[in-house]
Amino acid sequence: MDEPGPGRVTQLRLADFRNYTTLRIDIDSRFVVLAGDNGAGKTNLIEAVSLLTPGRGLRRATYGEMARVAGSGGFSVRAALARPNDEPADVLTLMQPQAGVGPHRQVRIDAVAARSADELLDLCRILWLTPSMDGLFTGPAAERRRFLDRLVLTLHPEHGRRSTDFEKAMRGRNRLLAEDRGDDAWLSGIEVQMAELGLAIALARAETVHRLAAAIHTGPAADGTFPLAGLQLDPGYGALDLSRPGVDVEDEIAARLRRSRGLDRAAGRTLEGPHRADLVVTHLAKSMPAGLASTGEQKALLIGLVLAHADLVRQSCGVPPILLLDEIAAHLDPGRRAALFDILDRLGVQSFMTGTDRALFDALEGRAQILAATNGSLAP
Question: Quick one: DSSP state of residue 174?
């Protein structure tokens, strides 16, 4: 049994979540392995853990979809999170059906309603890797932006709110342009707001990419187990120099938005900004775009990226993150699996891992809490 460190889940309780009617598990290890057949509820459980951070979780499902079929119509996820020199935090996130109100979740910390889900970042940072991300390097830029923003959020808790506010402002501008109202003062005010938020978003992304690119070469995952990735950020502003004084850059972005009103109106969208950014990843050893690497190499590059970022979070925040690794071991050979587990051990992170074959985790014997998942229940 491990001594629980800050930011670790020590107990998890579910009610009417996915295929779990009720569940309570006490967690006494940094390695938690969920083994069982497909459809048993392994990914459902780590999805519940992913709700201990802002957003819609690792599947990006609607809250209504998370509620158990034939259940109450709502759900709850309750966790005890270790804190330094204090009692564990009691975190409750729930969705209750309300007439005339769309599904939305509430967050309570120590029985006090949180002003926003962003307060969860004061307690823990969570990263995940799922099979749906295997095509990250070959898929649309929007998927890489979403991946990058999850990395940024763990280092810049205000990033999520800024992104939401930017999207809201941009939708307002697009609507005004489409309606051709010609309200210059209103449009200019929105464009100033978009410039301020857009620059803050771009700078947070750029800093994260810069620090992560360095961490890839220096962290525990730089031992050659996984190939090293090269990173570059296309911020979505073309050749605009973001390194100049912030006020000057904001003024230039606002001016560019003003000049592009006609083009944006014709296109039906805003053509420039952080919503057009992309993360450019290369396989350094082969000097080639990650998207041209083999499927196995792309998976290994992604694992190395996540491990390097976990180390960066540990160093920056003083608390190792929680990693949710869905089917992580299935496509790794035994040697690389064992090396992965050793790297996770050295990082000090709490890892929730899933797999259909319990034997895939033999290298964790004596270090892991291994649970068998069977149709919405867990057993040792």
Answer: H
Contacts of 216 (CB under 8 A, 6+ apart): 222, 228, 229, 231, 304, 305, 308
d(CA 107, CA 111): 9
pTM over 0.90? The answer is: yes
Same domain, 157 and 278: yes
User: Could you tell me the two tokens for 246?
Assistant: 């912030």
Distances (CA, A) of 46 to 22, 60, 338, 355: 15, 13, 22, 12
In a domain, 301, yes or no: no
Q: Are residues 83 and 162 in the same domain?
A: no
List, as one string, the DSSP characters of 296-344: HHHHHHHHHHHHHHHHHHHHHHSSPPEEEETT-STTS-HHHHHHHHHHH
- The CA distance from 228 to 221, in Å, is 9
Domain of 63, CATH number, reads 3.40.50.300
Domain count within the chain: 2
For residue 358, give the nearest of 48, 42, 19, 129 by alpha carbon.
42
Examine the domain organization and report whether 268 and 328 are in the same domain. Answer: no
Sheet holding 350-355, edge to edge: 126-129, 322-325, 350-355, 31-35, 368-373, 378-379
Q: What pLDDT sits at residue 4?
A: 67
* Whether 289 and 149 share a structural domain: yes
Q: 321-365, pLDDT tens digit by residue? A: 999 999 999 888 899 999 999 999 999 999 999 999 999 999 998
Residues 148 and 78 in one domain: no
Q: Is residue 17 domain-shared with residue 67, that is, in the same domain?
A: yes
Q: Structural domain of residue 35, as residue ranges?
A: 1-125+319-380
- Ramachandran class of 158: left when φ > 0, alpha when ψ lies in -120 to 50, beta otherwise: alpha
